[in-house]
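Record type: monomer structure entry
Structure origin: computed from sequence
Chain ID: A
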Amino acid sequence: MEPLESAGPMLVWTIVLIFVFLECALIIGLFLPGDSMLLTAGIVLASHETGSTQVWALAVATMIAAIAGNQVGYVIGHRTGHKLVARRDGRYINTRNLTRVTEMLHRHGFLAVLVARWIPWIRTLCPLVAGAARMDHRRYTLASTIGAIIWAPVLLLIGFYAGGFLGKVSWLMPTVIGTLVACLIIGTALGIRQYRVEMSRPAEEFDLDRPESMCSEGDAA
């Protein structure tokens, strides 16, 4: 616990903002423990004297990081065009998952972007697919912004107020924080390893027009 105490909220800020941005912007975000990281950050801030001030400021910062990440992901997808790259036999970046996200956007559009915020792997793929599918940028921005306002600050504050209850038991707070931090470090290391394994698999082209045509055939049937 000493490194956390000495580094203070600044360490929490740095880790949280980097993780949130990466998870919303780049493929590597698929393999990072974003939700559990936000909950852990809230609990850690609850153990600091300035935590109540820091958590609200960080809540605003996480919203901005999530919104910025979503825009970067959209731009990357938009520049990629209708043909995305999947990984053959990949665990996450495969044609099946890209098809599911594409069908969600075709069928539900605005609502799909909102719901995607709460599903880890879809949260990362959605901006990329939305950009590649040329989803209306204003509608996408509105939906992703509302999602960011609901997602990151809510999880952060849940962790913070849960930490307030844990702090009432002197031995419980350091035990919980130590366990959560250890799990995050292990989870991140395993995630980066899985990312490298995933990206080493053979690439295969994924055409966004295929799921759309499949949907229209199903509707016609």
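Annotation 1: The chain is about 75% helix and 5% strand.
Annotation 2: The mean pLDDT is 81.
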